[in-house]
Hints:
It is built from 16 helices and twelve strands. 47% of the residues are buried. The protein has two domains: 36-182, Rossmann fold (3-Layer(aba) Sandwich); 186-377 and 412-446, 3-Layer(aba) Sandwich (Rossmann fold). It has helices at 6-18, 25-32, 80-96, 117-133, 152-165, 191-204, 207-213, 231-242, 265-275, 333-341, 349-352, 355-369, 378-396, 402-408, 414-439, 445-464; strands at residues 36-45, 51-60, 68-74, 102-108, 142-146, 223-227, 246-252, 255-258, 285-286, 300-303, 322-324, 345-347.
Amino acid sequence: MSTYKFYEQVNKNFDKAAKYTRFDKGLLNQIKVCNMVYHITFPIEKDDGSIEVIEGWRVEHSHHKMPTKGGIRFSHKVDEDETMALASLMTYKCAIVDVPFGGAKGGVKISTRDYSVRELEKITRRYTFELIRKGFIGPAVDVPAPDYGTGAREMGWILDTYRQMKDDLNAEACVTGKPIQQGGIRGRTEATGRGVYFGIREACSIKKDMDKLGLDTGVEGKTFVVQGLGNVGYHASKYMTEAGAKLIGVAELEGAIYDPKGIDLEKLVEFRKETGSIIGYGTSKELPSNSDIFTQECDILIPAALESQVTGDNAHEIKAKIIAEAANGPTTADAHEILKDRGALIIPDTYLNAGGVVVSYFEWLKDIQHVRYGRMNKRFDESSFRKIVNEIENISGKKFSDDEMLNLTHGAEEYDLVDSGLEETMITAYQQICDVRDEHGLDDLRTAAFISAINKIGIMYEQMGIFP
Ligand code: NAD
């Protein structure tokens, strides 16, 4: 990691926002500190018979709501500071989008490329075993999810390990982001990127903000560049391009490309699969280094890789008018000030990438209800709609085609409901943040989002009191 202490960066943002709230210092401290930090080391036997010690963490930042919730990251850059920072961001994120969880985060200090699938499975299962032993996982306690370097496969291993050790009726709710067959939910894989798109769309719909930037309202026609084409970066780019925005730059580990004529996302992904690199795609030009993606001409910059990417060192050169923080903590506090002074609109991570935890919440609810969304009402709704449409046909004398009929009488399935819930959440939360911004006369959505979170958590503590 860079010299920027991530947890300190988060707390700087917290302190800045806390000044606009009415809570006393002690209560603010209680909101800010990490409630439990668990540092684990354990051995695994590698495929060649050698033994390696693996280091990991699980941090439960806030117990003001239970269970706590947050992803598990596999990266060689993981450390305690990063895990604490990410856990605390989860608390504020959940509060901002009204998801009833405290924040948590897990990390295992490995580079996934250095391990076979068998070894990754061993690491994941042993890490889970250690969490179970110390009470750091469970449907009512702490519920992990995917993050950088992990996905549905790892979540499936976590569930299986948990289920083997616990007779828990709600076992499936001990982790989210699982494969569908193991109690996962349709729409979870793409949820964070989908939420990023909804958030950018909301931001671009506010005329006074777009006027300030000299941009038209709407996503359509806007150019964007993305750092990181993983789960979040890929899906955010997919929905942005589907809505008519133009992808003109991409950075990945191997380097960065830029093409003002536009980059076809699916063809680029295909090209990378075949060649192992994004470099050399189509008519794009290769940039000197992958961090040069930040300084390219574009309307929207989407950092979707890791934290501390936009710093005091490169913020001056950023030309994008909108910084859409898909990753957690991509902008350091000093870079934030530089960008803000320059008049850029920063859509903060605590709001923008909350789609993952929102849909994880839906998944957790599904698992403790033991019933798929839409199962009870889809057919009933469809038959009611059909009766209404038939009545309309009778009264109007118009006959709908089979396609029109299907469209008009479609009953909501799980994916439809998840998507609708996510969209509603992202719209409502953005409006709340803007209301706070306007109420305090701020020009900064990050501070407004933090104020919104601190107020919600602070009021909860006031109402429930502190356990003696
Ligand atoms: P991922 O592992 O699927 O993808 C990350 C991508 O970034 C990888 O393709 C990697 O090669 C690339 N990358 C890493 N370093 C890079 C660099 N220096 N330059 C260019 N590319 C680089 O991870 P993800 O789940 O998409 O997570 C990305 C970010 O989004 C993280 O900050 C994570 O905490 C955050 N986030 C993820 C979720 C989720 O649901 N997955 C939810 C909220 C926030």
